[in-house]
Amino acid sequence: MKEQFRQHIEQTSPISEETFDYIFTFFKAKKIRKNSIIIDNGDLVSHEFWVSKGCLKASYILEDGKEKIIRFAVEDWWVSDYDAYFKNKPATLTIESLEDCEVLVLSFNDREKLCKEIPEMSYFFRKKIEGAYAAFQKRLVSMLSNDARQHYEIFTQQYPMLIGRLPKSIIASYLGITRETLSRISNTPL
């Protein structure tokens, strides 16, 4: 996990071995069993998670009890309820493991300390936030302007590693369509 994480950081911000060893002391390794909730609606959120192995989902529960999946996090992705994490307020999302997972956990205070002490980490986290913001904007525009078939095509292009890995009901929730609609469009040639 340590070498995988170093490679992840160095894709964005090269660092020395000594600096990386110091950075790594701020992270706690954790194993998460399938179907475990690591952040629940209403929790105070003081940590973010980097996924070494497995898949997590971040979802929002509507008043009628229906779940809307906001995003996934697989290997080399970060996840938290960032509105709660950055603003020190209760979570509105639930983050749950869809598979057995191995993650590195970073507290908000440790993230702030790393960014103050190590310019490369400040740059690294800024680039990650920029990428996430751009991806969310792209997804929102897609949801507003495309039909179910186009949503599915974009999903298969952007996240081929999730096809076959996740149940169709989970993918359908993420796409904002029914399981039946997903079955129909996924069985029709692209």
Automatic annotation (TrEMBL):
Domain Cyclic nucleotide-binding, residue spans: 30-116
InterPro entries: cNMP-bd_dom, cNMP-bd_dom_sf, RmlC-like_jellyroll
Superkingdom assignment: Bacteria
Record-given protein name: Crp/Fnr family transcriptional regulator
